[in-house]
Amino acid sequence: MKGGARVAVIEDEVAAVARAVEVPAGAGRGEAAARLTELRARYRARPGDFSTDLVDRLRLLAESLRRPPPRAVPTLDAARAVLRELFGHRDFRPGQAQIVEAVLSGRDCVGVMPTGAGKSLTYQLPARLLGGTTLVISPLIALMKDQVDAMARAGLRATFLNSTLAPEERRARVAALRRGEVELLYAAPEGLEASVGSALSGLGLSLLAVDEAHCISAWGHDFRPAYRNLAGLKDRFGAPVLALTATATREVTRDIAGQLGMVAPLLVTGSFLRTNLKLHAVKKGGDGPSSRDAILKLIKARRKQSGIVYALGRKTVEGLAEFLASHGVRAAAYHAGLEAVERERVQDAFAAGAVEVVVATIAFGMGIDKANIRYVIHRDMPRSLEAYYQEIGRAGRDGKDSDCVLFYSWADVAALDRMAGDDEQFATLQRRQSRAMFRFADEPGCRHERLVGHFGEVASACGEACDACGLEPAVAATSSPSGSRRAPSGRSPRRRRPSTRGWPRP
Question: Which of 145-154 are b and which e, b meaning 16 or more Cβ less than 10 Å from the residue's Cβ?
């Protein structure tokens, strides 16, 4: 065979290898590997028959064969099957299916769904169906073990990497990760800047899930600078990004997408309307009981029920917990100044029911998986409506009626102003947010209607689920076992189905 003919045959063989490589699995890829072996033998015998272009193409094809074969895109029906078999749920909750379908198709997505809506399932299901490893960015180092244990009980191979691990244990987990034995990896954003980032080097990820994604936005209520450094993750790992949060305005959702480098993300927004939460606001001062005595009265009317009391300062937290305990209430303090062991003890005791009430700063509650919290009381006004919504959202996750009592005053606004710090941009934002929070508490009008309106949702007056719509005032209602007596039922609030759309316009 003449040289030109031999080159033509070789070119045909290379084209056949390229076609075989495209076959997702099975005989096609086996055939491609066999042909490549034969072509290597020919190259060793007659290298002159192979142009530089042909050699480059063969190298690329060989590299393609070394990678795992492309997988068919899992269907939503497949996700439903895993939902039933692995998690025991009959069907998706509102909004979950849209997010899961987007993630399975490889599309970036932002899910803004209230506490208790099942956001974690939207990355746990894809972790099983997509194969490989899903990286979950979470600020909750203290809760990672609980999350991983829960995944193990469900049958998912999950682990975490954070600063609590001994060096030997960390090395063992990194080795398992590189062997492809981990479906879900939890890590904190601060960890990605250090050792976790190096452990992921060269690893192909199937999905990047960013939990509590509002922390990336300086416009959000819980900004964490380390979240800003997640911006390059999409380019670094080439995986789709799923950002999840319970509280975000349109301004914050746009910032989340921009900071994470998302490309044409789908925005899925659930309804923020939760009328099983009975909203009350009580102005501090005047001739009534002190807020401390009123809180004690509220709690005593709800004995053997679980609740959270939020306060701004650590000394206030400790003093109020001691006061409640001195009156026979099983109460414990929780704030960031406590040792990690003590915080874990309080958290575990509350989850088990050994502690009735946790008195806490905002350091407590994020990620707490306790469905039967019957009340949330704010001894001081929260810094923003976003923080307020997230904190009251920890009550009534089982769908049963739960009370949310807010004590407030203009002195709280002044205290929040003093806590704003020296950053002028942040201080200006804090002043704007605290005054919006005060107006929410002090002005007339349905609280549910105005609260969901802050997040861009339209709802009618609740008719029965807040003190502005006839619900008996919280402090006066403490004699009733449930803590809230309803006014005659009015018009039912209009609920909104979860929206699925492209990016909101400014």
Answer: ebbbeebeee
3-class secondary structure, 205 = strand
CA separation for the pair 246, 375 (Å, rounded): 19
The contacts of residue 192 (CB under 8 Å, 6+ apart) are 137, 200, 229, 230, 233
Per CATH, 76-269 and 277-496 having the same topology is answered yes
- CA separation for the pair 228, 215 (Å, rounded): 9
CATH architecture of 277-496: 3-Layer(aba) Sandwich (3.40)
* Residue labelled with tokens 């009251």: 392
Task: Determine the 3-state secondary structure of 501 from DSSP.
Answer: strand
* CA–CA distance, 245 with 238 (Å, rounded to integer): 22
Over residues 15-61, the pLDDT tens digits come to: 887 777 665 544 456 677 778 888 888 888 888 888 888 888 888 88
pLDDT at 485 over 70: no
Q: Where are the domains of the chain?
A: 3-66, 76-269, 277-496
Exposed, middle or buried by CB within 10 Å (0-12, 13-18, 19+), for 221? Answer: buried
Domain 76-269 fold is Rossmann fold (3.40.50)
Query: Per-residue pLDDT tens for 77-107?
Result: 999 999 998 888 889 988 999 999 999 999 9
pTM of the complete model: 0.72
- 500 sits in the region (left: phi over 0; alpha: psi -120 to 50; else beta) called beta
User: Hey, how many other C-beta atoms are within 10 angstroms of the C-beta on 249?
Assistant: 21
> DSSP secondary structure string, 237-267?
H---EEEEES---HHHHHHHHHHTT-SS-EE
